[in-house]
Amino acid sequence: MSINSLIEDIIKESKIHIRNGNVATYIPELGKIDKNILGISITDIQGNIYNAGNTDVKFSLQSISKPIVLLLALMENGEEIFNKVGMEPTGDPFNSMLRLETFDTGKPLNPMINAGAITVASTIKGANLMEKINKILYLVRLLSNNDTIKINDKVFQSELRTGHRNRAIAYFLKDNGIIEGNVDDALALYFKQCSIEVTTKDLANIALVLANDGVDIKSNRRLIPSNYANLVKSLMLTCGMYDHSGEFASTVGFPAKSGVSGGILGVAPRKLGIGVIGPALDVKGNSIAGIKMLEKLSDVLDLNIFK
Amino acid sequence: MSINSLIEDIIKESKIHIRNGNVATYIPELGKIDKNILGISITDIQGNIYNAGNTDVKFSLQSISKPIVLLLALMENGEEIFNKVGMEPTGDPFNSMLRLETFDTGKPLNPMINAGAITVASTIKGANLMEKINKILYLVRLLSNNDTIKINDKVFQSELRTGHRNRAIAYFLKDNGIIEGNVDDALALYFKQCSIEVTTKDLANIALVLANDGVDIKSNRRLIPSNYANLVKSLMLTCGMYDHSGEFASTVGFPAKSGVSGGILGVAPRKLGIGVIGPALDVKGNSIAGIKMLEKLSDVLDLNIFK
Amino acid sequence: MSINSLIEDIIKESKIHIRNGNVATYIPELGKIDKNILGISITDIQGNIYNAGNTDVKFSLQSISKPIVLLLALMENGEEIFNKVGMEPTGDPFNSMLRLETFDTGKPLNPMINAGAITVASTIKGANLMEKINKILYLVRLLSNNDTIKINDKVFQSELRTGHRNRAIAYFLKDNGIIEGNVDDALALYFKQCSIEVTTKDLANIALVLANDGVDIKSNRRLIPSNYANLVKSLMLTCGMYDHSGEFASTVGFPAKSGVSGGILGVAPRKLGIGVIGPALDVKGNSIAGIKMLEKLSDVLDLNIFK
Amino acid sequence: MSINSLIEDIIKESKIHIRNGNVATYIPELGKIDKNILGISITDIQGNIYNAGNTDVKFSLQSISKPIVLLLALMENGEEIFNKVGMEPTGDPFNSMLRLETFDTGKPLNPMINAGAITVASTIKGANLMEKINKILYLVRLLSNNDTIKINDKVFQSELRTGHRNRAIAYFLKDNGIIEGNVDDALALYFKQCSIEVTTKDLANIALVLANDGVDIKSNRRLIPSNYANLVKSLMLTCGMYDHSGEFASTVGFPAKSGVSGGILGVAPRKLGIGVIGPALDVKGNSIAGIKMLEKLSDVLDLNIFK
Questions:
Q1: What are phi and psi of D272, to 5 degrees?
Q2: Which of C248, C275, D147, D195 could pair with C200 in a Cys bridge, judged by C-beta atoms 3.0 to 4.6 Å apart?
Q3: Which of the listed residues C194, C225, C243 is the one where a domain comes to its end?
Q4: What number is the average pLDDT over the span C146-160?
């Protein structure tokens, strides 16, 4: 069976799960998306791209921005970022503050939880917010090979208005000396990176660079140092799917990062880049049909890295 | 460079780290081992075995028994074990009780923490303790291809006498309805499985079966169903090295499980099985020189599964 | 209005609340009591005793034994008991383990939570369990002026069979070095002290000694040193009513200690001793009608010590 | 011995403890006070006032403002404030966030911890910050019978600049729906109430109103309803001295509230009002010499309400 017909079938089969999920509403602007949207794009090492379903719908990166901004921070400052944020997975929900405090260091456990990602954002260098967000945008455009990508200002404004919990986390980090600069600036940058709008095609392109050890398959140019690509993929595997990460590693078996917009970026090393959209979420905040699609895909195309 | 000379070099280079580690003393019998011991055995898919350092020293499995007994539980009862224990990693130290209670379910987060492993042990079927431990011993002998493996009774007695924290965990699990049978029996079985004595050669053989998708390379006989092998390898990667698991996944990048005796079982899928001993532990309870050896090995032999 | 008719009225008025409560069932033997039982006994400094409702029903002390055994421990060893257990109240439910671990010391927060009371029991001196429980019984009989008080063996056996959570707590305390001797012995003594059977009259007599600064009103003999009596009364006020203690102090305003059998011992310093039984409990484990009776009593007789 | 010579002696004896304490530095402006200051004022029901030591030194109320603003909230809105904040004590340090989250409700445990006090401040009604703080100032002036009391703007600015942890707490409360209005406004009011400047004489006067059931002894005018006075005194006893509250209740035995400026307001019901200043704090944040003075005073003047 061709990949095209495979993913068409997977889309069809997986739609049934949408009814059991719900669109995220805690950021009001996210609540407006159609929960029936479902799409998948796949890129391979040979340069092919395969699309099925709603692959032209735009959605915000949300937490999918976390591994990308981590890559930028690593390229800017090297591994010293890990003086401020750990690498350890956690079974906690994505927005927990509990763990911050029970650990003596006050260091967020990893860069994939909000506390860790806000910390990472706070280390991005730049004269002002504009300069910093432009660096992030530049990297997203470079990795996705899409210069038209931009920020959805309505989503940004919506996050800015309602992000009280992230604000609480950020002030807690400030109090612990983890955030060194201005808290409002760090939060604004974090909300901006979450509001970058992409399609599944963009995600598949970004994922392909990671799948290909950090090297662009067309130009053969290295965009990301190999060790940083590995590090980010390992963090995606251990912490990328909120408190479903362990189960996802067991059943799907490749690095992925989800966002509450319903997007998932998946990486099958040396094989495929994958982008998924499906705004209906399960209770843990992952695209409910999206996960089903990735389970099936891993199974049929033998993508489990543990096998 | 041949693998033999590579691992001889690695042993030499890594000895320097021993001074920064300490032998575990909370189980008195473990405190008697020589902290300068260091050994590594490697098996490959082609049937070769390579040894360097103290590869004939016997040591108890301790937490390395956890993935093995989980395999037995899966083969006995299938995935219904996950009704009683989760799959999610945790940044907690190995013997924490805190997380048990903060989660509504009372379910241990995963089978690699003590609470999870005691739960798994409590589900092993058998008329009595002897029958149950014999099943475990049979599986260890089968996977290691070594019929002489047995339990170190001194270690077992030492654990039995001093395992107050595990006893606390077990009664907590009983109170929550997670352990259904007798608590003392579950603990005795758990202490027995921890007291099984092996060498690095045994570990490398066991690891090779996992590396080869559950199939014995000599007989070509399937010893473990493929999906259970994958599942256990993914749990080793996300939770196998205590609260260093995330960092180990980032820097070494393959599934491994350590024990407080200083052993580490490492699996490079489709490539190698690895057994390590080095009783000097770091603050997180992992062999301090053992981890250095695996970092080097992964780097030189390109074993990172995320690459 | 006379006290007799006042408490008759209070019994009548308060019965309506019984329907909103439930008998404790986690100790099976406790589940057999009639939830409609309601009784109150009051003793005063002048030597009068007033009874209304079911004041001859026998019930086990349960947590009401905690302040009494603390008095014994203080009289045996002085305030060094507070090297092993704190004096700080907690908003936690009565059987929480969480707080044990989040505090660095491993010391239970106070002697009114189970962890603290088991610790206190473990310090009682004696050649064997019999000698220790006899000391406790002797003190209960002395304070209540009732030599017929004894242990309900069915309740004791029931606690022994089902007390898994207390067993977990005790092994945790052993692991932390808080319990020095044998865990099973400490638990047996604790379960025995909880199983001592009394009536509301006994409670009112015990309470009167505390109300009278530790001095028996009839013989004028000092049974408890004044400072220990004060200390125990202050701990009853801050921690005596589980996680309703703060609200009880605000609305009733005198020291009291409840048990899951439905008993409450109340002390109005320099005024009254009070004993209550009402096995229908609220969600926090206190007698639902009993609390209403004490609120009314405090109001009418002006017993609030803060006023 | 007269009260005057008693408190002169107590001041002399207690100075020795100052060396073991330290001035609070987390609010930079507080760090500038002389740690050797020590003073005590006592008012009695007969209208006498006794002073010893530095009773004219001005210091900011800090947490001593908490019971006063709670009284205002109660007089404005009645007990419905307890829909937003609990009454239960906690053994946690004063600025903990942990407990906020482990309780399902998201409600702060009591009005004496920062989270609870910020919540109480957020409910004070008024057209703007000025109107609200004027209400608080009016009540402080009324209770202390001192119209010259005002806010120390340097302290206020210092708190505003450095109060990241309180800001974190406030946004967390906002996220949980506990704070309904603007977070910055609630924080500004809270920081203002903490910055109100008083002397020990003012504290003794305020305390005397509480000691006298809410009635001004000179005018015989009721300033606070009796039940609100009782309620606040019981909360001071169970939660007023941070995580030393339980021990303070056991050793001193009357309601008190301390602040990190080194002030303590103490209430001996029907007897005395007490004001203390001693900026050298113990590790729990209470005036180290101040506590010693109150222990002695309680002992000599028989002020323990449990006796």
A1: -135, 155
A2: C275
A3: C194
A4: 96
B171:C167 CB<8 A: yes
C-alpha distance from B303 to closest chain C C-alpha (Å): 39
Q: Does B2 touch chain C (CB under 8 A)?
A: no
Please state the domain count of chain B: 2
By C-alpha distance, which of D243, D279, D240, D283 is closest to D262?
D279
**Catalytic option among C41, C63, C122, C158:** C63
CB contact under 8 A, B238 and A234: no
What is the residue range of C153's domain? 63-194
Token representation of residue D304:
């323990």
Instruction: Spot the catalytic one: B66, B201, B271, B292.
Output: B66
ipTM of the complex: 0.95
- D99 interfaces chain A, CB cutoff of 8 Å: no
Assign B264 to helix, strand or coil.
strand
* B36 close to A (CB below 8 A): no
Structure tokens at A39: 């799409």
Q: Is the pLDDT of residue D65 over 90?
A: yes
**Domain-terminating residue out of B160, B194, B228:** B194
Chain-chain contact of A109 with B88 (C-beta, under 8 angstroms): no
Q: Residue D92: pLDDT above 80? A: no
Residue (of C79, C82, C108) closest to C96 by Cα position: C108
Which residue's entry shows tokens 């323990």? D304
In a domain? residue B35: yes
Q: pLDDT band for D306, please (50, 70, 90 cuts).
A: very high
pLDDT recorded at residue B94: 57
Nearest-Cα residue of chain B relative to residue C162: B175
What per-residue string of b and e applies to A140-174 under the rule 16 or more CB within 10 Å gives b?
A: bbbbbbeeebebbeebbebbbebbbbbbbbbbbbb
pLDDT band for D193, please (50, 70, 90 cuts): very high
Answer yes or no: D190 catalytic: yes
Flag the least confident range among A17-26, B256-265, D63-72. Answer: A17-26
Q: How confident is the model at residue B98 (pLDDT cuts 50, 70, 90)?
A: low
Alpha-carbon span B124 to B186, nearest angstrom = 9
Residue D63 appears among annotated catalytic residues: yes
Nearest neighbour of C269 by CB, restricted to D110, D230, D306: D306
Residue A196 has what pLDDT? 98
- Same domain for A108 and A224? no
Minimum Cα–Cα distance from C174: chain B residue: B164
pLDDT tens digits along B37-78: 999 999 999 999 999 999 999 999 999 999 999 999 999 999
A104 and chain B: CB distance < 8 Å anywhere?
A: no
Determine whether B284 is an active site residue. Answer: no
Residue A274: beta bridge partners?
A42, A266
Rounded CA gap, B218 and B221, in Å? 8
pTM of the model as a whole? 0.94
Q: Residues 105-164, chain D: which have Cβ within 8 Å of C?
A: 109-110
Taking Cα atoms as reference points, which of D284, D280, D249, D286 lies closest to residue D92? D284
Point out the catalytic residue in the list D35, D50, D66, D287.
Answer: D66
- Strand positions, DSSP E, chain B: 39-44, 49-53, 59-60, 197-198, 256-258, 263-268, 272-277
CB-CB neighbors (< 8 A) of C169 in chain B: 168
Whether residue A250 and residue B234 make contact (CB cut-off 8 A), yes or no, is yes
CB spacing of D250 vs C269 below 8 angstroms = no
Sequence letter at residue B267: V
